[in-house]
Specification:
The protein is mainly alpha-helical. It has one domain. Helix content is 61%, strand content 9%. It has helices at residues 10-38, 42-53, 57-64, 88-109, 115-138, 157-180, 190-205, 207-214, 220-242, 260-264, and strands at 66-68, 76-80, 83-86, 142-144, 151-152, 155-156, 271-273, 279-281. The strands form four sheets. Strands 1-4 form a two-stranded antiparallel ribbon. A two-stranded antiparallel sheet has the order 2-3. Strands 5-6 form a two-stranded antiparallel sheet. Strand 7 (271-273) and strand 8 form a beta hairpin. Helix 5 (115-138) crosses helix 6 (157-180) and helix 8 packs antiparallel against helix 9. The longest helix is centred in the first third of the chain and has 29 residues, at 10-38. The termini are far apart.
C-alpha cells in the first residue's frame, strides 16, 4: 500500500515549489528570447506543453508506484487515483524535461547536434533526474513505494533512464515538427506531442517494469529482469531518436536564423529543369 501515513516535509516542499517555479521563469524567459531571435514560438510552446502535460502525472504515478506525501499544509491543486498532486509538478516538468529538450532542439536547429552529442545529452538528463528526484525522495516529499530494484539513495534508476529517453524523444520530435511546419499554428501540436513522447517512453519502454511491479505474486527476480529489459528498450528509443538527427551544418547566427514561414521550415536551393532543358536554380 502507498505510504499514506508518511508526513510531508514542509521545507522540502517549499524548496521544490519556490525553486522550481523560479527556474521555470528563467527557462521561459530564455525560451521567449531565443524564439524572438529565431522568429519562432517553438521553445515557448515546448515549455507550455510540459506544463500542460503535467496534468497527466497521476497516470504515471499509478503505473510507477509513486506517491506524493500529503497532509495539512500541502500545496496541492487536484487529486486523482487518491494521489494528491502538488503545485510544483508543473514547474518540475519544465525544469526536468522542457529545459534540456529546448537545448537539444535548439542545437539540432543550429546544426550543432550529432548522434554522439545526443547520447551525451541523454546522460546529462539522467544525472538531472537523479539529482532532482533524489532530493525530493530523501527530502520527504514523495517516494516510489513499489518493489523497485536498482535503487540509488531510494531512487529507482530505471525511472531516470526512462525520463532521459522521453526528453530526447520530445526534443527530436519538436525539431522535426519545426522543420516541417509551414506556419506557427502548426507548432501547437507540441501540446499533444509532449504526452505522446512522455507515455511512449515511460509506458512503451517501461511496460515490462510496470507489469512486473503490479503483477500478483511478483518477485525481486521478476522485477529485476523486467527493469533490465526496460532500460534496454529506453536505450533503443534514444538510438532511434538519434537516427532522426540531421547531419551537422555550420552554426547559424541570429541574422540568418530565419527559415520559411517565420523561422519554421528549412529551404534549400534545388535544381529544376527549365523550358529548354537547362538546369536553373530555384
Amino acid at each position: 500500500m502507498p505510504p499514506f501515513d508518511h508526513a510531508l516535509n514542509m521545507t522540502t516542499q517549499a524548496i521544490l515549489a519556490y525553486g522550481s517555479w523560479a527556474l521555470t521563469a528563467v527557462v521561459l524567459v530564455l525560451a521567449v528570447r531565443w524564439g524572438i531571435r529565431e522568429r519562432t514560438p517553438v521553445y515557448a510552446l515546448m515549455v507550455l506543453a510540459a506544463m500542460i502535460g503535467a496534468f497527466a502525472e497521476p497516470l504515471y504515478d499509478v503505473a510507477m508506484s509513486l506517491y506524493f506525501y500529503s497532509g495539512p499544509g500541502m500545496w496541492t491543486h487536484f487529486t486523482a487515483f487518491d494521489i494528491p498532486q502538488p503545485i510544483w509538478t508543473h514547474s518540475g516538468y519544465v525544469v526536468l524535461y522542457a529545459s534540456a529538450a529546448i537545448l537539444i532542439a535548439r542545437a539540432i536547429y543550429r546544426g550543432a547536434m550529432t548522434r554522439r552529442k545526443l547520447y551525451v545529452w541523454a546522460t546529462v538528463e539522467l544525472v538531472m533526474s537523479c539529482v532532482f528526484e533524489m532530493f525530493g525522495i530523501n527530502g520527504g516529499a514523495y517516494s516510489y513505494w513499489g518493489p523497485h530494484v536498482l535503487r540509488i539513495f531510494n531512487y529507482p534508476l530505471v525511472i531516470g533512464v526512462l525520463e532521459a529517453a522521453q526528453v530526447v524523444c520530445f526534443a527530436v520530435a519538436a525539431s522535426q515538427l519545426r522543420a516541417r511546419s509551414t506556419n506557427h499554428w502548426q507548432l501547437l501540436g507540441l501540446i499533444v506531442v509532449f504526452p505522446c513522447t512522455f507515455f511512449m517512453a515511460n509506458f512503451g519502454a517501461g511496460w515490462p517494469t510496470i507489469v512486473a511491479l503490479h503483477a500478483q505474486g511478483t518477485s525481486t527476480a521478476l522485477v529485476a529482469s523486467a527493469t533490465a529489459i526496460s532500460i534496454l528498450l529506453a536505450a533503443a528509443l534514444v538510438r532511434l531518436a538519434a537516427s532522426y538527427v540531421p547531419p551537422p551544418e555550420p552554426v547559424r547566427s541570429g541574422s540568418d536564423a530565419q527559415d520559411g514561414a517565420g523561422g519554421l521550415g528549412q529551404h534549400h536551393t534545388q535544381p529544376v529543369l527549365g523550358d529548354a532543358g537547362v538546369v536553373k536554380q530555384r
